[in-house]
Amino acid sequence: MNCIYLLVRRKKGLKRRVLLILGLVSVLTLLTGCTEVNVPITSESEGFWNKYIVYPLSQLITYFAEITGDNYGISIVLVTIIIRLAILPLMIKQTKSSKAMQAIQPEMQKLKEKYSSKDQQTQQKLQQETMALFQKHGVNPLAGCFPLIVQMPILIGFYHAIMRTEAIAEHTFLWFDLGERDPFFILPLVAGATTFIQQKMMMAGTANQNPQMAMMLYIMPIMIIVFAISFPAALSLYWVVGNLFMIVQTYFVKGPELKAAKDGGNKK
């Protein structure tokens, strides 16, 4: 959300280039991430996406399943944690960038009120003052976008590895078959609840300032529940473990901020 919010305020030339890059990344992600989701992944699978991202992740799942007694459920949990740890530096950088942007929101709001006129000259002045504000506080408005772009192919690749590794569908874990929907809908509900908690923690102190973010706080968990009800339980398991990891990570990264938001809520 912050990425889109910031991009529209950049100078026109830079805005076009950035939007073009993001558009190309989105198209690439769509083409590589959705077209073969029902095709099993094997060593013969062709293409950069399959050979160097999906297949290695599939092999990693298989490897941990073998060393845990052919338990693909435990394997998905372990590989999810490993991947989250691997991209943890990117997540921390993205979070810090988001916090830096939040810190200057009051000053940005004052600038918008000062230059509220919609004529071209006033809007150019607003852009100049906004960029000067970024420079004054050493904030890079695009710093939070790059980690997100790097993370997405990895996470989508792992999703593919789970969906396209045939052996996963042949095994069970806890009360469910990994290749079938959770018969009791427990995992989808937990996935939705943990998504809500994780987003709530990430948005601590900002949801009231940004109505769009507040709306996403409720829309995303509902979407996750709907998807999880329809998808194999293995994918729901991945979402739940990933969300729990993110909750713990957010607690440690944003601890003081979360405490301040809680204290503010108690005073009310």
Description of the molecule:
This protein is mostly helical. It contains 12 helices and 2 strands. A two-stranded antiparallel ribbon has the order 1-2. Helix 2 packs parallel to helix 8 and helix 3 packs across helix 8. It is elongated.
Short description:
The chain is mainly alpha-helical. The chain has twelve helices and two strands. A two-stranded antiparallel ribbon has the order 1-2.
Write down the secondary-structure element order.
HHHHHHHHEEHHHH
Unreliable segments of 5+ consecutive residues: 1-18
Radius of gyration: 21 Å
How many strands? Answer: 2
What fraction strand? under 5%
Terminal Cα span? 28 Å
Strand order of the largest sheet: 1-2
Shape: elongated
Number of helices: 12
Q: Quote the average pLDDT.
A: 75
Query: Which structural class matches the secondary elements?
Result: mainly alpha
Largest sheet: 2 strands, antiparallel
